[in-house]
Automatic annotation (TrEMBL):
GO terms for cellular component: cytoplasm. It is an enzyme of class 2 (transferase). HAMAP family: EPSP_synth. Pfam families: EPSP_synthase. Catalyzes the transfer of the enolpyruvyl moiety of phosphoenolpyruvate (PEP) to the 5-hydroxyl of shikimate-3-phosphate (S3P) to produce enolpyruvyl shikimate-3-phosphate and inorganic phosphate. This is 3-phosphoshikimate 1-carboxyvinyltransferase. Phosphoenolpyruvate binds at K26, G99, R127, Q174, R351, R392. Its EC number is 2.5.1.19. Monomer. Its main location: cytoplasm. Gene3D superfamilies: Enolpyruvate transferase domain (3.65.10.10).
Length: 438
């Protein structure tokens, strides 16, 4: 993997105070661009995440002939080309760091008349794609991967797809969404069953775009041959980005932070339940609705945390929040036990290994097992950390530095811009000690 030059030095700042607006949800922003591009008519997206991952997805649709305007930062007007209006791209399509982009596009592109190639950065190029290409092949798709089932994906167009009745082997919203998108083009019904319910943004948003889709937690089905109708989308603030400030305010003494209008889809907020089990003080205020999603302000006050056994049933609902949780666990009194979380090994990095190694470098005891870890809370020391190009590992260790007895140097932090552009400035603004270097 190419190593970026950028690094942070994180060290204790002040108690955290203020009211913060967190950037738009990454999962919803990806889907909004995709579905708007496939719709008949023009859709406006507000609150769009100006992150590298979601901008890569928008660029890919522009390469396939979709006109996208940027009337102002965090807004897009997407002039949809209709379900059958995408054009063959002249070049490979670069998903950057985005697993969501690549997996959903694999489903969509498998059903097009033309060939295409999906590529990604060093991290994405190591991630497993057979979980998507194998069920798509059962539907009639032809996709070649690199040896080992990793990107690039060479997708052969012009295949007639059949609907599929498929039980997902892993709880993955990306996989579910890829199959539903292919199912839109397939003959007959596509029915998906999940081992545990995952985020349902694809289902909700397809319905908002006029698609007849049946879904309930753990199940979704739709019939092929439907069209999408343009609609406007308001993207709520990303809970997974808010998570870093929720943990930071919980563990930094004297802190009181208000996070404005955070998306609280229940399939995303497992971290709130986990932190409350550990003694956190988090209050929801002014609950309302934005773009069909529940949003509320979160008031987070410092509280002494204690270790807990994280229920396995919570894992899919907090799948992106384990780097932040590991820091809360390091700051807590006693042991925190994570299990049933083997999926963390195939995220933007092997997050179990990256967090265990990083925390140990700061003097925190972590016992790592195949599907989890036990974190022994205790003093956090100074040290040097590799983020492995993983945005969430970098942000997690920026928090660790706030409690450390000396500076924490976090290497390879450029990819924070994939999901949370401006994280460091927002963090400094509310009290973090965080310097950037290159
Ligand atoms: C996502 C689903 C999750 C999550 C990722 C975004 C999505 O991945 O980790 O950050 O937008 O559907 P899996 O569905 O593979 O668990």
């Amino acid at each position: 993997m190419s190593q970026s030059q950028s690094y942070w030095i994180a060290r204790p700042g002040t108690a955290l105070h203020g009211e913060l607006s967190i950037p738009g949800d990454k999962s919803i922003s990806h889907r909004a661009v995709m579905f708007a591009a496939l719709a008949d008519g023009s859709s406006r997206i507000d609150g769009f995440l100006e992150g590298e991952d979601t901008r890569a997805t928008a660029r890919i649709f522009q390469q396939m002939g979709v006109r996208i305007e940027t009337p102002d930062a965090s807004s897009r007007i997407v002039h949809g080309v209709g379900i059958d209006g995408l054009q063959a791209p002249a070049e490979p399509l670069d998903c950057g760091n985005a697993g969501t982009g690549m997996r959903l596009l694999a489903g969509l592109l498998a059903a097009q008349r033309f060939d295409s190639t999906l590529v990604g950065d060093a991290s994405l190029s190591k991630r497993p794609m057979r979980r998507v290409t194998e069920p798509l092949a059962q539907m009639g798709a032809r996709i070649d991967t690199a040896a080992g089932g990793t990107p690039p994906l060479h997708i052969h167009g012009g295949q007639a797809l059949q609907g599929i009745d498929y039980a997902l082997p892993v709880a993955s919203a990306q996989l579910k969404s890829a199959l539903l998108l292919a199912g839109l083009y397939a003959q007959g019904w596509t029915q998906i069953t999940e081992p545990h319910p995952t985020r349902d943004y694809t289902e909700r948003m397809l319905r908002a775009f006029g698609v007849a889709i049946d879904f309930e937690p753990g199940k979704a089905s739709l019939q092929g041959g439907q069209r999408l109708r343009a609609t406007d989308v308001v993207v709520p603030a990303d809970f997974s980005s808010a998570a870093f400030f929720i943990v930071a305010a919980s563990i930094i003494p004297g802190s009181l932070l208000r996070l404005r209008k955070v998306g609280l889809n229940p399939r995303r907020t497992g971290l709130l339940a986990a932190l409350r089990l550990m003694g956190a003080d988090i209050v929801q205020l002014d609950a309302g609705e934005q773009g069909g999603e529940v949003v509320a302000d979160l008031l987070v006050r410092h509280a002494p945390l204690h270790g807990a056994v994280i229920p396995e049933a919570l894992v899919p609902d907090m799948i992106d929040e384990f780097p932040a949780l590991f820091i809360a666990a390091a700051a807590a009194r006693g042991q925190t036990v994570v299990s049933g979380a083997a999926e963390l090994r195939v995220k933007e990095s092997d997050r179990l290994a990256a967090m265990a190694t990083g925390l140990r470098a700061l003097g925190v005891r972590v016992d790592e097992v195949a599907d989890g870890a036990t974190i022994h809370g205790g003093p956090i020391g100074p040290g040097s950390i590799q983020a492995h190009g993983d945005h969430r590992i970098a942000m997690a260790f920026a928090i660790a530095g706030q409690l450390a007895t000396g500076p924490v140097r976090v290497h390879d932090v450029d990819n924070v811009a994939t999901s949370f552009p401006g994280f460091d400035a927002l963090a400094r603004g509310c009290g973090f000690g965080l310097e950037c270097g290159a």
